[in-house]
Amino acid sequence: MEFRTFVFYFLSAILVIAGLRVITSRNPVHAALYLVLAFFTASGIWMLLQAEFLAIALVLIYVGAVMVLFLFVVMMLDINLDRLREGFWSYLPLGSIIALLMVAEMGLVLGGNYLGLFEADVQQTSADYSNVQAVGRLLFTDYVYPFELASVILLVGIVAAVALTQRERRQSKAVSPSQQVFVKARDRYRVLQMPAEKD
C-alpha cells in the first residue's frame, strides 16, 4: 500500500468517526470540537487531491464560522457562562486529543510531499495552473443552479433563526423621552432619616 493511500484511509476513518460523534455527542461543546476535527480532516483530504484553495477555504471559512456560530448560539440562549468556565478543564483531554490528531494529519499530508513518500507517477499540474480559476469556472457555469439554491437555503436559515429568537415578545428597554422631560427632582431621590447606631 502506498503512503498516499494509507494517509487517505487514515484521514477518512477519522472523518467518519468525527462526523458520527458530532451527531451522537450529548455535550454541544464536544460536538463543536468534533466538527472542527471533521473540517480539518476533510481539508487534509483536499490537500491530497491537490486542491489547496479548497482546503484552506474549508479551514478558514468553516472552522472560523462554526466557532463564531457556536459562540453566537451560546450568547443568544443566555447560557450561564460561569458554569461553562467551571468545566473548562474537563474539556482539556478531548481538546488535546483532537489537537494532536490535527497536527498528525497535517504532518502526514505536508511532510509526505516534502519527504517524497507519495508515489511519483501521480499526474501533476503545471506551474501556471490556478485552482481558484478552475473552481470559479465550474461554480458559475456547470454548478450555478446548485450554488444559487444553496444561497437561498442559507437565507431561509438566517430568516428562520431571527424569527425563532423574536418569537417571544420581550419587554423593551427603551426609555420614553417625554417621561424623562417631565420627571421632577423630588421624584428621583428620597432623604431618609436613620437613627445613629452605637456599639
Could you characterize what this model shows?
- The chain has helices at 3-24, 28-48, 52-76, 81-86, 92-115, 131-139, 144-165, 177-181, 185-188.
- The model has no long low-confidence stretch (mean pLDDT 78).
- Helix 2 (28-48) runs parallel beside helix 5 (92-115).
- It is mostly helical and 199 residues long.
Q: What's the structural blueprint in terms of helices and strands?
A:
Layout: H1 3-24, H2 28-48, H3 52-76, H4 81-86, H5 92-115, H6 131-139, H7 144-165, H8 177-181, H9 185-188
Kindly summarize this structure in a few lines.
The protein is mainly α and 199 residues long.
The biggest sheet amounts to: none
Count of DSSP helices? Answer: 9
Low-confidence stretches: none
Mean pLDDT: 78
Calculate the terminal CA-CA distance, rounded to whole Å: 89 Å
Radius of gyration: 27 Å
For the structure shown, list the relevant keywords.
mainly alpha; 199 residues
